[in-house]
Structures are given as C-alpha cells and as structure tokens.
Amino acid sequence: MNYFKKILRFAKPYQKYGFLNIFFNILYALFSALSFVALIPMLDVLFKESDRLYEKPTYQGIGQLNDFYKDYLNYQVTQYAGEDEMKALVLVISLVIVLFLFKNIFNYLAMYFITFLRNGVLKDVRNAMYKKVVELPISYYSEKRKGDVIARITSDVLEIQHSFLSILELIVREPLTILFTIIVMFAISTKLTIFVFIFIPISGMLISRIGKSLKKKSDKVQKEQGTFLSIIEETLGGLRVIKAFNAENRFVKHFNTSTGRFFKFSNSLLNRQNLASPTSEFLGILVIGILLWFGGKMVLIDETLDASSFIAYMGLAYNILTPAKSISKASYGVKKGNAAAERVLEVLQTENTIKDAPNAIEKTAFEKNISVKDMSFKYEDEWVLKNFNLEVPIGKTIALVGQSGSGKSTIANLVTRFYDVNKGSIEIDGKNIKEITVKSLRNLMGIVTQDSILFNDTVENNIRIGNPNATKEEVIEAAKIANAYEFIQNLPNGFETNIGDAGGKLSGGQKQRLSIARAVLKNPPIMILDEATSALDTESEKLVQMALENMMKNRTSIVIAHRLSTIQNADLIVVMQKGEIVEQGTHQQLLDKKEVYHKLVEMQSFE
Q1: Closest CA to 560 of 391, 371, 398, 370
Q2: Does any domain span residue 187?
Q3: Of 277, 273, 275, 270, which is closest to residue 321 (Cα–Cα)?
Q4: Residue 599 sits in a domain of what CATH number?
Q5: pLDDT grade, residue 606 (50/70/90)?
Q6: Of 15, 20, 222, 393, which is least surrounded by CB within 10 A?
Q7: Per the domain annotation, does 363 fall within a domain?
Q8: What SS3 class is residue 156?
Q9: Residues 393 and 343 in one domain
Q10: Claim to verify: residue 42 and residue 190 sit in the same structural domain
Q11: Shortest CA distance to 319 belongs to which of 607, 39, 552, 7?
C-alpha cells in the first residue's frame, strides 16, 4: 500500500471528483440495501401475510426498527389502496422500481465522477514520467533498455489505472454497501446475521491466500514486456543491418523466446488471478446454502421469522457477495498494481545528477574563453580523460583529433554538461559550468553531431527546434547558410515537407545540412562539431564543409575531427591519445614536427 499512497498524490488536483464519487457511492450503498428491504411489503401482499393497518404505527426504538418499517409501509399501502389487492401490489412494485432506479442513477453518477479522477491521474503520471525521461541525464540511458522505459510509460501506467485507481471506486461503495446491508440484516434477524458472520472470516482467509504471490508474478510479466519492447525498438532502428546480414531469423527467434517467457508468466499470473472469482463465488454460495438451511429452520420450525422477511434477507445476503467479490479482486489488483507502481516510481524518484546548483547563475553571454583545468573523467572504472587541460579563446576554432577511443567526443559531452567531470573543472569566462544553470549553459552552445538526429515532422519544424520563435525569413536564411535551401525547395512541399521517421526520406548529406541549419538558427556563440562530416560521401562533405565554414564565422568552435578537410584551417589542433594531449599546434606546425599528427594525416585515419 506504500506505493498506492505515493501514486495517490497525483489525485490531489482531482479531489473534488473524488468527493462527489464518495457522496454518490454513499447514496448508492444506502439505496442498494433499501431496494431489497422494499421487497418485504410486496411479498407480504403476494402471500397475504399481513393484515391491513389503519392506525399509524409509533417508533419503539432501534430494536423494533424492522417491525416499525413493515408496519409503516403497511399503513401507507392501506391508506392508498384500501382493500384493493392489485392496487396495493402496483404500489409496492412501484416503490421497488423507484428504489432500484435511484440506486442505479447514483451508481452511474459515482462512476461518472471517478472517471475524471482516474483518467486525470493517468494523464498526470504519464506527463510526469515523460518529463522525467526528458530531464534524466544521458548516462541513465546507457544503463537502461529504451523498451523498458517505454513499457513503464505505457503498460505499467495503464496497469496502475486498472488496479490501483479501480480501488478508488470500491474504497467507499463496496464497504458501505456491505455495512448498510449488514445493518438491515441485523434489523431483520440478529440471530441469523450472527450465524452468517461465523463463516465469512473463514472464506476471507481462503481467498487471501490465493493473492500472496501475485506481485512477484506481475513484476515478471512487466519486466518481460519491457524486454520485448526493447527488441522491437532495436529491430526498427536497425532493420537495414538485419536485412543486409540476413539476420531476420535470429532476431525472430530472439523475439519469440521473449514472448514465450511472457506467455508463460502471463498464464501463471492470470490463472492465479482467475482463481479468485470462482473461489469467492463458491464460498459465497456455500454460505448462502448454510443460510438457507438455518433460516429455513427459523421460518418452518421455530417460526421466529416470517417467510417474506426471510426471502428479502436472502436477497440482502446475496447482495453482500458482489461487493465482497469485488473487494477480493481489488486486493489482487493492489498486488499487481504494486509491481507496476514500483517500476513507475523508480523512474519518477530517480535523482537527476545533472542539476542546477542552489546558487547557479544565468549566463547570457560568452565573453573570454573556455578553460578545461586538470580534468579527469571516467564513464565506469577506466579513466577516459586524465589531467586534461585546454584553453579555447573566444572567436577561435580548436580542433581535437586522434584515434577512436582517445576521448574526443567525451570532451563535447562534458562541455555541454551531458556528463559531469569526476575531477578538475570546466570554466566559461572563469565560472565553473556547475555554477551556471544548465539551461543557460546550453543556450550558449550549438551542437552538430555525426549522427543527424531529426524528428518525424516538417523540415521547418526540425530547423525551428533551435529557435521556436524565429520568423520564416530567419528559417530560410539559416537554411541558406547551411547550404540546405536549394534541396529544400526541390522537396514536394518545400519547408512543409514531412521528412519521415529520423529523417528517413532524406540523404545523409541533406540530413546533416538540416542539422547545421538548426544550429545556425539557434545562433549560439559557441559551436561544437562532433565529427560532423565523417559519415558523408565526398560531394556531400564539400557542401556540408562549406555550410560549416559559413556557420563558424565569428564564432568560438570546438571541432572533433574525422577528416583533414574539417580541421586544417583551425587556429589550434590538439592531438589526443588515450585521454591525454600528446601534441598541439597549427596544421603546418604539426606536419613539420613529423610525429603523431603527421602519421594520422598520412593514414587519413581521423576517427
């Protein structure tokens, strides 16, 4: 129930719907009990068990409540119908119909208002989950399967609605229905009601034993769902590779293995859950059978209970079964929902390690330099960068070169604060970037990566991510600077053309130029180019290189290089090996040294 309480905090904005639900559930429970009691005078008329009562009865206290109720109804029927039996029958039938009508109206209104609460909580939990997913640092997703995160936002949140939030419907209605019904049962026959209650705890103990392992089984189902969603996500992302290597059967087998486990876990969970309903119903009928024997004895032999009251009593006893069964099913729902809520709350309660310091400042301008001082960093156990020092003056282009794994891209991740340094510091204008708000820090920077990350939207909206408030003219100007305007004009709908999932309708060079246009439109003082031309053919590289040169004018740039053409005009080239600087200088200076850089140029192996 601990997770249930934490999820319930999302219900606070919708508490008025909760109160309305409670109010109508109280009325439903009351009329549910009264509707069965109304059967007594109808049965009395049918069986002709009561004589007409012409004098208004007086209330004698709670102990005589049942007799007072019957006499009062008898008196009202007598007043209205006199000796006309059919008229009396129509009256009491009308009473029963009206009571059942009100019972169902109140039931609908209770469910009507709880719907807003349930769906509102579902919406807010999903929104909170998505917000958290966006906020969490990139390092979080290097440890998590994407499919598992998707499963938590979709199926786990839905499970919370089906299990936890369905309890809100039962929390008032079913217990009150049972309570009011029991009160009326006591009013009809105390002896019979006490007899019934000997058997109810025994039934409850048997039912509760069934649900103990449901949380564990449900957790397995949800984890496996995350696994096969991950396989789907990886398959869609790598479909070309799968087909190119004829690996379809291997991936199908992998997926089938996961769904096979899901099938097994789901069967085990649902069979245990399905056992609840027939078990509770059988135990309920067993109690009804014993009740028929004991109550029949009171009517036929002891004559301490009249037949019409006993039949109404039986209806009331059966009336307890439905809410009792709902409560037992809800208890299983709690156990299932507990597993889902645990997985959802695990994400919501994950601490964001990349966050603003309490006294963080808003930095709106870049004035002097970027300084990397004695910086060391590791992703896990092995140091990727060791005692790294670098100065990037304003307006200069600094290129980082070296073989794969030398730590070049890591510097881009650290300067943008996708990760935090383990030792040392990175400063902008003498201020540690940890003391600058993350938002204002990233506002100072534009990034163009090797993989052009585009979204399933129009060309214009993809460019606008850099500056949502830009005018159409500014978008066009950014596209021209990025050498993208010409090919955009040739698209079916120009800037309004949808580029497909991950920009699948465009070539590599076109996608990269859109990425550059996006960075240009943002117009940041610092530009980070992470191997921006490494994945392109020669012709596309020339177009992109021109776009990059246009973009880097009058800007401070950190260029992580793959090809010589990208960096030969840089103000300073830093050559890296195994996380350390081995030499630095201009292109010509480093060539003249004929050391590491010279070898890399000869090999044309800028990774």
Answers
A1: 398
A2: yes
A3: 277
A4: 3.40.50.300
A5: very low
A6: 15
A7: no
A8: helix
A9: no
A10: yes
A11: 39
d(CA 589, CA 84): 119
CB 533 within 8 A of CB 539: no
Distances from the Cα of 153 to the Cαs of 118, 122, 160, 177, 343, in angstroms?
16, 10, 11, 35, 10
- Name the domain count of the chain: 2
d(CA 112, CA 135): 35
Instruction: Note whether 198 and 63 are same-domain residues.
Output: yes
Which residues span the domain enclosing 500? 389-603
Residue 600 has pLDDT above 90, yes or no: no
List Cα–Cα distances, 571 to 57, 396, 481, in angstroms: 107, 6, 22
CA separation for the pair 599, 593 (Å, rounded): 10
Alpha carbons 79 and 73: distance in angstroms, whole number = 10
Q: Is the pLDDT of residue 563 over 80?
A: no
Q: Is residue 50 part of a domain?
A: yes
Q: What is the distance between the alpha carbons of residues 478 and 553, in angstroms, rounded to a whole number?
A: 14
Task: Work out the average pLDDT over 263-288.
Answer: 72
Structure tokens at 26: 């109280």
95: closest CA among 46, 52, 39, 26? 39
Q: Is residue 362 in a domain? A: no
pLDDT-derived band at 582 (thresholds 50, 70, 90) equals confident
- pTM for this predicted structure: 0.71
Residues 437/443/444/447 CA torsion (nearest 10 deg): 120
- H/E stretch holding 428 reads strand 423-428
